[in-house]
Amino acid sequence: MWLLSIIFYLNNSEKCLIMKPKNNQILVIGYGNSLRCDDGVGQLVAIEVEKLNLYQVRSIYLHQLTPELAEKIAEFENIIFIDASIESEQLKLTKLKYSQVNNNWTHHLTPESLIYLTEFLYQKTPQAWLITIPIKKINFGEKISNFAEEGKQEALEIIKNMIENLLVKE
What we know:
The protein is α/β, with parallel strands linked by helices. It has helices at 41-51, 69-73, 111-122, 146-169; strands at 6-9, 16-19, 26-31, 57-62, 78-85, 92-96, 127-134. α1 (41-51) packs across α4 (146-169).
């Protein structure tokens, strides 16, 4: 991994300040079933974020959350999860709180249980958010509806703003 270290020596003493920029600030995780029309919109958002090719931002897109993701999550300061919901009429942005959750650790996890697992295994607790995009069409197919497309575009704008704000803070 490339790491730039700049060392400033102060007053010819042994004290020094080492500045190391962090390469892994933000991880975007889009998930959902891409073969069930709108349900795959979370993956599509993560793919679009990846295409932006932003420094310190990485994307993962997959069918579902699995315990194996905890190792990757532990490498980042901020996590943005993106999922679809047929139960919602409008896009929701939720800041996830760290808390112990009861889970049987199967190959289907919630974002909260994955953050808990990351803390339990790696003693890392990144800030995390969940963007839930409302959907209507979950029949078999790969094409998303216009409704889901609008949600995708809204989610992308929110994520771009979040990335800008998070990177400025760091």
